[in-house]
Write a structure and sequence with these properties.
This protein is 14% helix and 45% strand. It is mainly beta. The protein folds into two domains: 17-206, Clam (outer membrane lipoprotein receptor (LolB), chain A), CATH 2.50.20; 219-305, Phosphorylase Kinase, domain 1.
Length: 309
């Protein structure tokens, strides 16, 4: 899942290679914690004026996780390996990004493969979150085409206990925040806490994702911002879908046939997510991502037909 709270300015700017190496080590520790550490606790998610509270249960050994939304309509998501079980309203393929924390495993993999070239890792102070000592780690973008993040990593394991998405081009303004208000790190949830509350619920989804280059699509994007590469593409009866990522931020481009109505150009925003829709010949293009509006506009202007059908 998708920001996050006001924090004290970082007191330590890394300029020496020793400190830079230490920041990299914290990122690797976080990846290990996300893949190997059990935990359970209560998360608060802030997105502008919207706030949600979630109960999270995670068993790393069994690759099982259960999220229960405690505010608003009842919603519940259970992950069992690559299978997703969803209860309640909403589109889980949009609302669920693997887990509130698991997406950061991909970020570490991207860092190790050199994909985070457009960000600087910076160590900050030690602070307390939910009763635990943490190390602050920032990922600062090199330009205004992507947001920055600050992570509060539990000192013993590296598990992120607080994550802030901020607009670095606007005085580190917080856009989203995810924070544990209480958590038990290293505690394996009971078997019953990992099962859906409604047995035999039939809304199941696969978390498998298409592989880049697996299919030929008729569209591409030229002049993408530095650092962004095509990570996946797929063609279905509904149209083409391309996903670009810089290892941390991602942008989706949908190119679909017109629905028979005149298509008007429009731009929209929901929290940190920006979107743009417009007509391109006989197609409707929809570009969306958790990036600044200027980045969405850059992608939108670059959509071209690679091999018109």
């Amino acid at each position: 899942m998708k920001q996050w709270m006001l924090g004290l300015p970082l007191a330590l700017t890394i300029t020496g290679s020793a400190f830079a190496g230490e920041a990299d080590q914290w990122l690797e520790r976080m990846a290990d914690a996300l893949s190997q550490t059990d935990y359970q606790g209560t998360l608060v998610y802030l997105d502008g004026s919207r706030m949600e509270t979630l109960k999270v249960y995670r068993s790393a050994q069994d690759s099982r996780e259960r999220l229960v939304v405690l505010t608003g309509a009842h919603r519940e998501i259970v992950r069992d390996g690559d299978t997703l079980i969803c209860i309640g309203a909403g589109d889980p393929t949009v609302a669920y990004e693997g887990s509130p924390l698991a997406r950061w495993e991909e970020t570490v993999n991207a860092a190790q493969s050199g994909m985070l070239s457009e960000y600087e890792l910076v160590l900050g102070d030690s602070e307390r979150v939910a009763g635990y000592d943490t190390q602050v780690l920032a990922l600062r973008p090199h330009d205004a085409l992507r947001y920055g993040y600050r992570l509060w990593l539990e000192s013993e394991t590296g598990l992120p206990l607080r994550i802030v998405l901020e607009d670095g081009d606007n005085g580190k303004q917080p856009l989203e925040q995810l924070m544990f208000t209480e958590v038990q790190v290293g505690v394996t949830p009971a078997a019953g806490d990992l099962r859906p509350s409604i047995p035999d619920f039939n809304r199941h989804y696969s978390l498998g994702s298409p592989t880049a280059g697996a299919v030929d699509v008729a569209w591409s994007v030229k002049n993408v911002p530095a650092g962004f590469v095509l990570r996946s593409q797929r063609h279905t009866d509904a149209g083409d879908h391309l996903v670009y990522s810089d290892g941390l931020a991602s942008v989706s481009v949908y190119v679909e046939p017109h629905a028979g109505k005149a298509q008007k150009s429009s731009a929209s925003r929901a929290g940190a997510v920006h979107a743009r829709a417009f007509a391109l010949g006989d197609r409707r293009v929809f570009v969306i991502g958790k990036v600044p509006a200027a980045t969405i506009e850059r992608f939108a202007r670059g959509v071209v037909a690679a091999d018109p059908r």
